[in-house]
Amino acid sequence: MGLGSPHRNHPRSPAEGRGVSIVALSPGADLSGFRTAARRLIATGVSPEHVLWQIGEAPSLFGPTEDGQPAGAPLSLPRTVAALIPMVVPHRDPERYALLYALIWRVTQGERALLEVASDPLVHRLHLMRKAIGRDLHKMHAFLRFRRVGDGEPERFTAWFEPDHHILEAAAPFFVDRFRPLHWTILTPEGSAHWDTQALHFGPPGRREEVPEGDGFEAGWRDYYESTFNPARLNLDAMRAEMPKKYWKNMPETAAIPALIRSAAARTAEMIERPPQMPTKRDPIKAVAAMTDQNPTSLDELNAIIKRSEPLVPGATQAVLGEGPLGATIAFVGEQPGDQEDLQGRPFVGPAGQLFSRAMEEAGLTRSDAYVTNSVKHFKFTQRGKRRIHEKPTAGEVSHYRWWLDRELEFVGPKIVVALGATAVLALAGKAVPITRNRGPFAFGGKPFAGFITVHPSYLLRLPDEAAKAEAYAAFVNDLRQVGRLAA
Amino acid sequence: MDDALAKKLRVLADAAKYDASCASSGAPKRKAGKDGLGSTTGAGICHAYTPDGRCVSLLKILLTNYCLFDCVYCVNRRSSNVQRARFSVDEVVTLTVEFYKRNYIEGLFLSSGIIRSPDYTMEQMTLVAKKLRREHGFRGYIHLKSIPEASPWLIEEAGLYADRLSINIELPTEESLTQLAPEKSGATIQHAMGQIGERIIEAKAEKRRFSPAGQSTQVIVGADATDDSAMIAKSSFLYSAFGLKRVYYSAFSPIPDASSALPPQAPPLKREHRLYQADWMIRYYQFSAQEVADATDGGMLALDVDPKLAWALKNRHLFPVDVNRADREMLLRVPGLGTRAVDAILKARRHTTLRLDDVGRLTSGLKRARSFLIAEDFRPNAMSERLDLRARLAEPAQQLSLF
Q: Of the candidates A148, A265, A277, which has its C-beta nearest B257's C-beta?
């Protein structure tokens, strides 16, 4: 990339438009200085070969007010170009600004899609630079090691790291995202970053000596590093390609490397050559036999498992278990516990449950003779003010709970199982089945009991007009009578 | 860190190292909250490399290496004389959090020997993950090794806290399992994989959190007689049937106190490498398992050339391919061109006509690619016809050395 040679030394403003414009930027990644300069240069039509980019102690010569020139307007660049610039500016190559300006120039001179031509030598070189920055950032995120400072509270951590490029500011947000609740400092030869759980500050360069000499967990970490190494797979090229030696001095675990390499061959040979040994431990025959015997053997055992399980959707007070005698002829399966059920820990005790009891009585069934349970065992709701509004379980949630329902019904062993509403049908049949068309006796498939589909009692409560309500209620009672006959 | 804990760590890291699945990728991006530690970046980070060239990303340990199973290939089988240890749940939590704070790791990869029962073991492992998430607000990566023999609800509970679940099939055929891992059953393993796969799909659709980084598995290479074609066919089946994210191939490695039924030998590292490349062909280059099999010599992948090159050498009539005209599918079949190079070619040629030098800037595999492609200023005529092409492109026959 040619920079063009300066014909005259003094012209400092691109506004003159002739000769060479000298732009001096701050050391490091001077993104704002570059942006300001690039806007000016483009605004005044200075081509890349007439710009000389200098990096020095002096501040940018194109600060917004410095020479009284108006700042150039923001450049309208394709998004990919705008995104590339901050990823190249931290590169330590002194040509970075010249290369980026050449890119901007060509893009604004008609080659809008230049960045898509990855085979173009300029684009190729910028891509390589971007890749180098990406790698440097990645290695800093990976290989930086914190040490705890003192043992006071709150915990404080410090690290020393030597990046290849000017990336401290670009690298710091990763550590904020990750270690937000901790106080930490990162020291580099070019600057430092400090996080106090609230704000990120950048400061002057640090020194390695400012980091404590050790950390209480470093020996353990080295133990881990040594133990996770497999001597039979020694592959030093692969290690060095990904973790070049230059990083080793700041990584405590790498002190173990020479000994691991030295002993690898002997350790491997020992494993291969050692004749197989007889087991010296007793053979735990009983334990092995008992291991397969883990399934709950009674409804009580199953219920204990359900009780201590985690609700799939957090919020429920407790798991609501099924209720009723083992060996009940009829089992009713509802949807999921409601507000009252969740608080009392019993199924069908809320308004719908009361309606259900009344209907059973009218149909000549005794509720306490039947087994009553739900497809999903935990209440799910959205909080609206003080009220907890019931929320229908999703298909995925229903299948999460179906294991338990299946086992539960196996233990109870009913002659007929009544699905109350669509969710129960889904749980029992394993797929959605329209209820209105299949109301009545129904085979759930592969089950040791007869099946029956009817509506959920809460449906009756939701019907708006009284006539419809009465009619639906009568139909529900009718269904229950039919169930009674089938169970007899 | 006290000595007793350090000693356990040595035993239980050593016992876990034969599991190859170290990745910390695929989790949804998360950031630490006010009082919760940890983040995930999507791509995963390797925090160190050991002299075996492997990535150290997660704290990969067993909860315990006591085990009631007796899998012949396994260092932790109950008949092995290795030293045993067991972590408490809190010890694992402490190690994970303290290592994490020092930027040693991306998170935890927890596995375990089977103690008492599969259910009990699974519950203990899930408890670790639950404590990390609930009590420490830990947002780093958690990978749990699921126990296929555990009850379905326990496997599903694990998915609430883990970023990734995995079940190792270890041996690709039922006969090998029966012979080498008597307590395991291929049907149980596949059933559990199917169950996890279903839950992952449902949770995604319902925007719930369930093993968001998917599930993976590991197959041991070289412990039984399964050939490479059968391995790749099995992987291809696992990817399509259960939506696995990754199949890991782990060269059967010498272990301390090996069983007499499976005498130790140098691990077939080159074969393992070729299997990963073949796996890549079916996942990224749109080859079918059958096409990979066609590129083998009697079921085994060539060791001197990579499988994509082997396929191209057997299908020379399809080459050379014109980089300025060929479609994506055909470009992906050119040895030396990866997905990135192909995408860059497709983009660039909308604006320009590519010469050989241009292609050289888009791939680092030009040496292999040039015999199979046409560029504006280049035809490989003489080259691609040469009978010694394979020999010229083969990697030097260098035995991976143990030293």
A: A277
